[in-house]
Write a structure and sequence with these properties.
By secondary structure, this protein is an alpha+beta fold. The chain is built from 5 helices and 4 strands; from the N terminus they run ααβαβαβαβ. It is extended.
């Protein structure tokens, strides 16, 4: 028993001694990695910066992300359902035309639910809602690579409260362009 205790203490001492380092951190040179100035006029430049990162035209991104003018970006669903209501078919058709006309436009469909039900169930229902919109767009000729479907379940409500009116606002799929 004493041999085991002595052996254990010896191993701990060896491990502690092995962890020490002879390098002093104060003597290590530090390389300056501060940002350098970019060529052109910053984010609106079409060129690349000295670091090799291409500039982004923020105004062009805003124009591309606008979506069809005067068309809702929200599709509402009935309680515990992922069936697209007939009154939202025109909304989906307008977005399909907009995406196909733009060539490389990309759309994110976010499925949401009201607060009733468990977290896992609502995440699954939100995903089914987003997938229903994605499939409807695909049937109208939109390429699968242009649409991503995600679920937020009950995590991002559009409205707060326990009334049926509030629940109806939260049962939705939101369309946003990327």
């Amino acid at each position: 028993m004493i041999k085991q205790a002595t052996l254990a203490l010896s191993l701990v001492a060896l491990m502690a001694a092995g962890c020490s380092s002879g390098v002093k951190l104060d003597d290590v040179p530090v390389e300056d990695k501060t940002a350098s100035s970019t060529t052109g006029n910053g984010a609106n430049s079409g060129g690349t910066s000295q670091s090799g990162v291409a500039g982004v035209d923020l105004n062009q991104s805003a124009r591309d992300g606008a979506g069809p003018v005067g068309v809702s970006r929200i599709v509402y669903f009935d309680y515990d359902s992922y069936v697209i209501k007939p009154e939202f078919q025109a909304v989906i058709e307008a977005h399909a035309r907009f995406i196909k006309a733009g060539g490389n436009r990309k759309l994110m469909v976010e499925g949401h639910t009201d607060e009733r039900g468990g977290r896992e169930y609502n995440l699954a229902l939100g995903q089914k809602r987003a997938e229903a919109v994605r499939r409807a767009l695909a049937l109208l000729g939109v390429q699968d690579a242009q649409v991503e479907a995600v679920s937020f379940g009950k995590e991002k409500p559009a409205a707060q409260g326990g009334t049926e009116e509030v629940h109806a606002k939260n049962r939705r799929a939101e369309l946003s362009y990327r």
